[in-house]
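sry for the spam today, last one i promise. struct tokens for design, 497 residues
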């Protein structure tokens, strides 16, 4: 175990980030461009790891600790083909970053020098001597004055897996391995990876929610005092699965409680990582379930669940984003944020951290912004501000373009095609309250940051906000909501710089 790899420059970077944020937030009518490119080819080499910021982020977990947000993420690094580490940098396990604004991130280093011995020994013993190549899908939480970090060790394509717990006095370490929480072998129905912890707001009971592909998502009660399983060798109970679960992926659970609705929300990811990875959600009165989807279906049944909150998408002027899944959701005061990875087209190999503001529909369902968060100041939005040209994306399901193995597209099986993204369509909101070019919809109205769009068979109620247009590089208006099919509907207003 080790304390995070850091250098004296980190503290200075934090100060620069904080000063820069305060400076640009205090100036009216300025350009709020975060200055972050989507393509990080130029700084991908390991020697530039301190510059990675939002880059090489895979399966993020976020926690607010003091004045900083911290993310922990899977050991995944994109490099050019043929790359070799010819530097003195020793790559560790579990990447750690911090931020003061959720926009600009400092790369702090790694949690572990090596995979903990007990995890390595278990996977080796039950997988025929196959050696894990890293630690996956960490989950961070605060318990009293302790930072707890749950981590996964496994072999791809097998459920010979191990979830362990590390503890530290802060997210920056030093870390101590606290032991095994749950482990699985090929004979088990569940896969011991992708942990998250749900805490009962009434009783204080802790539940480990975990699982990936094999058998679905399970819930296992923990002992809050230790963070380990309350009953040794317990695997827990089934919470969520999906149609054709032996071929179709459901994984990456995240549970968040919303005190406004007194509900627990279970976010899961569906489909192939490199392409149509997408986030869906159900809700429950209890952290251990049962969870029900948008149409009232139990997520433990063999059905596919809705709503769809993210999906492969492409606004005009951009190659598109795929792999927009495995989310972390945090609550900061009354505001919720979703963090997840995004894979940049056309190759879908580069991994970039996406942070999105989350909103809640009047009937208590979460939706997220179509644009990444840029910490723009709040703006008083008038009805007249909405008139004009928009781009609208409906996040519908798209058929796979390649044969799947273990729910994934084999390496090299992806071929760029814009029809494999949900593409933006031009729409016009006229001053007289009519709509042009939006099939099935004819009129609109606006009040209290909600846009009502009237159709022949339904009415969309969409949350409106101001955000940074990352494709066109200027502040704009966005909307987000859910249609009657359970698909998210995203929009952004087009305007002159």
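last one done:
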């Amino acid at each position: 175990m080790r304390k995070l790899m850091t250098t004296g420059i980190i503290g200075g970077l934090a100060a620069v980030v904080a000063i820069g944020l305060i400076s640009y937030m205090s100036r009216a009518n300025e350009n709020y461009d975060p200055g972050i490119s989507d393509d990080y080819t130029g700084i991908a080499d390991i020697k530039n790891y301190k510059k990675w910021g939002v880059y090489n982020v895979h399966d993020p977990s976020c926690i607010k600790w003091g004045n900083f947000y911290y993310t922990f993420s899977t050991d995944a690094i994109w490099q050019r083909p043929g790359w070799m580490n010819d530097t003195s940098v020793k790559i560790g396990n579990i990447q750690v970053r911090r931020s003061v604004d959720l926009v600009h991130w400092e790369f702090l280093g790694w949690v572990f020098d090596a995979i903990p011995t007990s995890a390595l020994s278990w996977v080796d013993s039950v997988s025929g001597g196959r050696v894990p190549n890293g630690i996956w899908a960490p989950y961070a939480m605060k318990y009293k004055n302790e930072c707890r970090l749950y981590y996964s060790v496994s072999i791809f394509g097998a459920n010979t897996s191990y979830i362990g717990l590390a503890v530290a006095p802060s997210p920056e370490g030093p870390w101590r391995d606290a032991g095994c929480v749950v482990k699985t072998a090929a004979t088990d129905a569940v896969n011991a990876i992708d942990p998250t912890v749900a805490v009962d707001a009434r009783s204080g009971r802790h539940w480990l929610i975990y699982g990936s592909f094999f058998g679905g998502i399970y819930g296992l009660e923990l002992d809050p005092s230790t963070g380990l399983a309350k009953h040794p060798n317990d695997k827990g109970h089934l919470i969520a699965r999906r149609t054709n679960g032996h071929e179709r992926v459901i994984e990456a659970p995240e549970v968040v409680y919303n005190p406004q609705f007194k509900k627990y929300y279970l976010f899961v990811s569906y489909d192939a990582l490199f392409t149509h990875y997408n986030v869906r959600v159900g809700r429950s009165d209890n952290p251990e379930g049962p969870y029900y989807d948008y149409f009232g279906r139990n997520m433990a049944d063999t059905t596919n669940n809705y709503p769809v909150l993210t999906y492969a998408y492409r606004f005009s002027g951009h190659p598109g984003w795929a792999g927009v899944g495995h989310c972390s959701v945090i609550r900061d005061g009354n505001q919720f944020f979703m963090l997840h990875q995004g894979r940049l087209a056309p190759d879908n190999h580069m991994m970039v951290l996406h942070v999105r503001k989350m909103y809640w529909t009047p009937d208590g369902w979460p939706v997220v912004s179509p644009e990444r968060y840029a910490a723009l100041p709040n703006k008083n939005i008038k009805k007249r501000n909405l008139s004009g040209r928009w781009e609208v994306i409906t996040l519908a399901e798209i058929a796979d373009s390649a044969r799947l193995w273990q729910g994934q597209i084999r390496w090299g099986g992806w071929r760029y095609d814009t029809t494999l993204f949900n593409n933006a369509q031009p729409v016009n909101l006229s001053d007289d309250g009519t709509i042009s070019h939006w099939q099935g919809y004819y009129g609109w109205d606006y009040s209290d940051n909600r846009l009502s769009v009237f159709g022949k068979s339904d009415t969309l109620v969409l949350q409106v906000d101001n955000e940074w247009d990352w494709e066109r590089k200027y502040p704009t208006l966005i909307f987000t909501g859910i249609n009657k099919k359970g698909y998210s509907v995203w929009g952004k207003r087009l305007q002159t710089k």
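The CA atoms of residues 53 and 104 lie 7 Å apart. ok im logging off now
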